[in-house]
Specification:
This protein is of the alpha+beta class. The protein has 1 helix and 4 strands. It has one helix at about 1-20, and strands at about 20-30, 35-45, 50-60, 65-70.
């Protein structure tokens, strides 16, 4: 949907602007039907100087604004 696309674009732009150590960044937005106010996303990328080193993070933003990041 439109909101997911806008969130995905904002995350991609932010990573591109501020995290130069990552290349080939892919964002996958996740939403839960049971909790529509929480949004999660996976970030997959490669380290810029080591194209063979993958990076993966799962982040979740709760309605309170709290952000949880897991690797």
């Amino acid at each position: 949907d439109e909101t997911r696309a806008r969130v995905k674009e904002a995350i991609q732009e932010t990573v591109a602007r501020y995290e130069k150590r990552l290349t080939q960044v892919k964002i996958n937005i996740e939403t839960k039907k049971t909790d529509v106010l929480t949004i999660g996303f996976n970030l997959e990328a490669m380290l810029a100087r080591h194209d063979t080193v993958p990076v993966f993070f799962h982040s979740q933003i709760n309605p309170s604004g709290r952000i949880d990041v897991k690797k």
